[in-house]
What we know:
Layout: E1 5-10, H1 15-27, E2 31-34, H2 46-60, E3 63-68, H3 72-78, E4 86-88, H4 92-100, E5 106-110, H5 116-128, H6 135-153
Helix pairs in contact: 1-5, 2-3, 4-5
Amino acid sequence: MDNTSIYIGGDHAGFELKGKIKEYLKKEGFEVHDDGPLSYDPDDDYPDYVVKVAKDVIRHKARGILICGTGQGVDRTANKVPGIYASVAWNKESAVVAKEHGDVNVLCLAGRLTKPAMAKQIVKIWLDNPFSKEPRHARRVAKLKMIEKEYLKGR
C-alpha cells in the first residue's frame, strides 16, 4: 500500500472542509491528490468525485478521504466500487473502529457536521492506527471481501 499518497474528493457541502484537510495532510508530509471538485459549485454531485477517488485508491493501492454534507452519500457511493471499504467517522472513537476493526481504505467525513479541528483528529487517528488483525475482525473483513467476490463472479 502507498502510505504517502492520499486521494481526496467530495462535493460542494464538503468543499470547505476538504481544503482544510488538504492543508493539514500536506503539513503532515502526505502527497495529496485532489480529485475534485476544484472549485465550489452548489450544483455538483458527489458520485462524480467519489468514483474518481475510488479508482485512484484502487489503481495506486492508496487511501482516500471523501467529504459531503453528512458523509453518508459519499460512503454509500464509495462502497459500491469493488475494492473500496469506506466508513463514515464522526468522532475519535468511530475513527479508531473504522480502521482497527474495519480496515477501511476510504474515510468519509461530514462537511456540514464536523468541525475542522475534530476532522483533523479523525484523519490523524485513521492514518496512525493499523488494522488490528484480531481474528474476529480479520474474519469479518474476509467475509466482506468474499461477498464482493461472489457478487462480482455472479454478474
